[in-house]
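Methods — Computational structure assignment.
A single polypeptide chain was analysed. Its primary sequence is given first, followed by the predicted tertiary structure written as structure tokens.
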Amino acid sequence: MKLLRAAFIAAVVLAGCGQAIAQAAPEAGKPVVIDLWPGTPPGGGGPRGPERIGQSGTGVGAVSNISRPRIEVYKPARPNGAAVILIGGGGYFRIGIGHEVMPTAKWLAALGVTPVVLYYRLPADHWPAVAPFQDAQRALRVLRAHAAELGIDAKRVGVLGFSAGGNLAGIAETRFADRFYPAVDAADGQSARPDFAGLIYPVVSLQKPFDTTRSRRELSTQADAVQAYSVELHVSHDTPPTFLAQAADDPIANIGNSLVMFDALRKNGVDAELHVFDKGGHGWGLGDPGSAVAAWPRLFAAWARRAGFFSSVDTGPFAMPAAAPRAPAADDAGPDDN
């Protein structure tokens, strides 16, 4: 994780979201960092001490103890205007930055898509259950508020979530009209609706029989969490086009999660594409080279191009992404969503 992060040291830190970006063209490879909130984040609570980065097992590179919710925006060498907010999984007790998010960010940047990494607050860190949903909604508005400065087309902003991050992305795409927090500045006049969404081995439902995940347990501090954060219950005809990918043998998030989401999307007339792989398990990120699940990035990019969100066909060396080495199965904190 230290090697990954060394290449992505922040070039710009903003004291507040309404503040103009200090550098129009950050040094190549370094992100523009934008704090989501101009002051103390809403809701109260939160952890003490610095952020923690996992050092072992499937937790290598995973970030927790987050008290400063923010986005990191990476500028591609040849940007095409599209942007994707990347939301790592981790059962709402950590965020899979090293294994899931950063490899995907590098792949998207190679396609000319601007990757935006979301560091959101975690209920396991003593934030209220609504905190991550506040952060995701705010991230979409803040990104659009800075779209011109960042070279982003505000009408081609998507979300891509893994595991618990798929739950967060799913609520962002279905409950965009609900105010999760009072407006704090002009950025909150922007739309919180993503233009498209990708849900990768997602935790969609908190309802039975899918209520066995770590995500469900961490969100249970809110009395109505099952109703509030079961994504399939909030799908409407206004939900943006959605791509889903999951393995049938997923031991953490039952394949039924993707099936109920796809069914809800189709019943509401929403453009949707679902890919179910026979094997793959959970938490594969970009997927091991040669595995069935490693096909999802190309399938997602092709889907996004057909829908007009990505532009031009990528023929460069990164068109078929190589996955980061698979982390060991053992982990001192257990699977992301057990």
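Note: The chain has a mean pLDDT of 87.
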